[in-house]
């Protein structure tokens, strides 16, 4: 019995995808998906660059889940998966300039403009509660 590498990876990362989609965050799996949603999005947009690393599991996804319980949240919620949906991730990162690629990371855009960005180094050294507090502060500032 043999399983292809691609199938193994799809099966392995599905629970990591589900952690975000179960929160109501829509996956953007292709560059066309990103192009259809981000350029013309009105209001506020949260984009999570998901990944398989430990800081995504231990801090990033739990921090996002906590932040989305806040009474003020972005109008649109999207995610791309670094290392899995490569073209979608590359396209999404075009909206995060001047920041270099970072996985995981969290971007908040308002009317197409990047207004808040949390890089990997700001995730791996903080707790989920600290990330949630950072996000809710940004939500209060930009999503009202």
TrEMBL record:
Gene3D superfamilies: 6.10.250.2150, Glutaredoxin. Belongs to the bacilliredoxin family. PANTHER family: BACILLIREDOXIN BRXA (PTHR40052:SF2), UPF0403 PROTEIN YQIW-RELATED (PTHR40052). This is BrxA/BrxB family bacilliredoxin.
């Amino acid at each position: 019995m043999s399983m292809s590498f691609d199938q193994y990876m799809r099966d392995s990362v599905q629970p990591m995808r589900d952690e975000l989609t179960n929160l109501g965050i829509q996956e953007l799996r292709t560059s066309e998906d990103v192009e259809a949603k981000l350029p013309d999005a009105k209001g506020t947009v949260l984009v999570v660059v998901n990944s398989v690393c430990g800081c995504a599991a231990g801090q990033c996804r739990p921090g996002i889940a906590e932040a989305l319980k806040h009474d003020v949240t972005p109008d649109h919620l999207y995610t791309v998966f670094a290392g899995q949906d490569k073209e979608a991730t590359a396209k999404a990162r075009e909206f995060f300039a001047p920041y270099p690629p970072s996985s995981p990371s969290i971007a908040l855009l308002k009317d197409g403009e990047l207004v808040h960005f949390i890089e990997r180094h700001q995730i791996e050294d903080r707790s989920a509660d600290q990330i949630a507090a950072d996000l809710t502060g940004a939500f209060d500032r930009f999503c009202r």
